[in-house]
Amino acid sequence: MPSRPPLTVLLASPRGFCAGVDRAIQIVERAIEKHGAPVYVRHEIVHNRHVVDRLKAMGAVFVEELSECPTDRPVVFSAHGVPKAVPAEARARKMIYLDATCPLVSKVHVEAERHYAAGREILLIGHEGHPEVVGTMGQLPQGAVALIETVADAQAFQPRDPANVAFVTQTTLSVDDTAEIVEALRTRFPAIAAPHKEDICYATTNRQEAVKAIAARAEVLLVIGSANSSNSVRLAEVGRRAGARAYLIDDAGSLDPAWLAGVSTVGVTAGASAPEVLVEGLIDRLGQAFAVTVEEIDTARETVTFKLPRALAG
Ligand code: SF4
């Protein structure tokens, strides 16, 4: 057998599951334990195909709308949050529902409501159509929140009163892109009310920082995550900006060996919704073709955990 070429794997840390994803998955698992199958889940609980498939096998049924759920089975709302109309409809239909909205998304909802109560015009920096954006906009009456996706949007926005504007953000954005948008808003509206601390969550921030630390040294960056996972897509973008050829893959099976031809250093990370077992699978696969040396690059320690809803705790 020919000897395998050497490959250094720079493993980003932190990577993979965040506290909000961990909690959301536990909510579905515990709901199935408590109520038996099926338990309905409105929207993918987190944006990862492997997580969704595993929960389906345990008895979760994924739907897009509450109208697809029978009223005699529990329903879980996904980690991305839901418009206020959704729990209201569940209550009207007398359904048992469990809210797996990440507490850091709920915090943004509360901020938006606070600005609204103070009479401010609210800008939400985020990506159109993402369920978190739909959920945050849906906390307030239609028209109360304007979506800003780009610096050009920030420059074009015409407020009713430039002295009475506020902004909130999606939690899983690019830290650098968002900073540019915020700067454009602050230049135009110096009095704009801003979050006390970033709305981009700790997990998104830490994973992007960790990618920056490895991507400058890696020729190729492999990001494990699903294509509809906002924070995973951002990790690949951050890697590209730092100079690596970055690929977003669901798992080791999606790896194209041609990407690694002539490569001696590869970076590996995983989005906040991607299980660690997929990272292990990827490193095993790399080990079949290369003599792999793994170097873990640690840029932050995470200690955040979130409590389960009272109905499932204990
Ligand atoms: Fe919560 Fe951030 Fe994880 Fe989203 S990525 S679930 S906001 S901790």
Topology:
Elements: E1 6-13, H1 19-35, E2 39-42, H2 49-58, E3 60-63, E4 75-77, H3 85-92, E5 97-99, H4 103-117, E6 121-125, H5 131-137, E7 145-148, H6 151-156, E8 165-169, H7 175-188, H8 202-215, E9 220-224, H9 230-241, E10 245-249, E11 265-270, H10 276-289, E12 291-298
Parallel strand pairs: 1-11, 1-12, 2-3, 2-4, 4-5, 6-7, 6-8, 9-10, 9-11
Helix pairs in contact: 4-5, 8-9
The site of iron/sulfur cluster has 15 residues, from helix 1, helix 4 and helix 8.
Rg, alpha carbons: 21 Å
Please give the domain count.
3
Gap from first CA to last CA: 54 Å
**Assembly state here?**
single chain
Could you spell the SSE succession in H and E letters?
EHEHEEHEHEHEHEHHEHEEHE
What would CATH call the architecture of the largest domain? 3-Layer(aba) Sandwich
Bound molecules: iron/sulfur cluster
Portion of residues in helices? 25-40%
Name the CATH superfamily classification of the largest domain.
4-hydroxy-3-methylbut-2-enyl diphosphate reductase, catalytic domain
Question: What is the name of the CATH topology of the largest domain?
Answer: Cobalt-precorrin-4 Transmethylase, domain 1
What can be said about the biggest beta sheet?
Answer: 5 strands, parallel
Number of strands: 12
Q: How many helices in DSSP terms?
A: 10
Q: Beta-strand level of the residues, as a percent range?
A: 15-25%
Shape: flat
- What is the CATH class of the largest domain? Alpha Beta
- Could you say which structural class the secondary elements and strand pairing correspond to? alpha/beta
Q: Uncertain segments of ≥5 residues (pLDDT<50)?
A: none
Give the averaged pLDDT, no decimals.
96
Placed side by side, the strands forming the largest sheet appear as: 10-9-11-1-12
